[in-house]
Please model this.
Amino acid sequence: MRLNPASVLKEDITVIVWQESLDTAVQKAKAEGKLIAMYCFDPSCTECQQLEAVTWADECVANIVNSQFIPLRINGMKQRSMFKEYRIVRTPTIAFLDMEGREHRRLTGFFAPPEICARILLDAAETAISLKRYDLAQGHLNTAFATAKGLLSCRRRSIIPRPKLFIQKGSKVPAAGGREPAQGISRQ
Model:
């Protein structure tokens, strides 16, 4: 899905405005003084699909990514050379690149919105410190602290369904560790 960079809002929902070229992302990063958040995915990857549907679609996450980073989205099926260059072996991977396109940190796997907000901001702050860009690090840390105060609203919108526990008289469910079945509790 290609988004119009001129419009960050679509149907009253904030979306991430992804770049699709490393060269374009590096140019923007230099011009705006931001780090690049490179999201590497495979369309057939279940965790990538979950990250797109739950995490990247979250308004809090989109606002942070759009305001603090140059977002770059790399499709492993179409841009295999990028996967080889950055040694991406597992998806989803989120790599933090400096203004020259050099990788400093990375995250792999699915993260729910509240967790990814904290992780990307703290990793970006560490990257900025390693680059001796203390002003940039301070901005990421300030955003992390400000966001932490408002994460409850993110959690409320981004709940991942989990099995509910129901107590049913006489039902048997195997207990943890393969011991005898527990009495009266079943998962549905």
About this structure: The longest strand covers residues 165-173. Residues 42 and 77 are 6 Å apart (CA to CA).
